[in-house]
Design brief:
Layout (H helix, E strand, L loop, with lengths): L18 E4 L1 E3 L6 E5 L3 E2 L5 E4 L6 E5 L7 E5 L5 E3 L5
Parallel strand pairs: 1-5, 3-7, 4-6
Antiparallel strand pairs: 2-8, 5-6, 7-8
Bound molecules: zinc ion.
Zinc ion binds next to loops.
Length: 87
């Protein structure tokens, strides 16, 4: 029925207080810090779950806008994710 367009995954249907944001999958890290996850990087208690842009695994918990210029290497699927997800 839907003709071949890219699938846009909605993240709007999560439960009450926890938001989920998919990180931006990138090809290869340039410069900057690279961390690996999981285990989940807990920058902040119960705020936003940042997930791998490819496989959806939760990689980091942080506040909205707390983390910038960071790359996270998903140990599940091997994808590098950028925390800069500005529209
Ligand atoms: Zn992944």
């Amino acid at each position: 029925m839907f003709g071949g367009a890219d699938v846009c995954v909605s993240v709007g249907d999560v439960m009450a207080e926890r938001r989920k944001i998919a990180l931006r999958a990138i090809k290869a890290p340039g410069v900057g810090s690279v961390l690996s996850a999981p285990p989940i990087l807990e920058a902040s208690g119960h705020t936003v779950d940042y997930t791998c842009g490819r496989c959806g695994t939760i990689l980091m918990r942080a506040e909205l806008d707390q983390v910038h210029n960071l790359l996270i290497h998903c140990t599940r699927c091997g994808t590098y994710n950028s925390t800069d997800v500005e529209g």
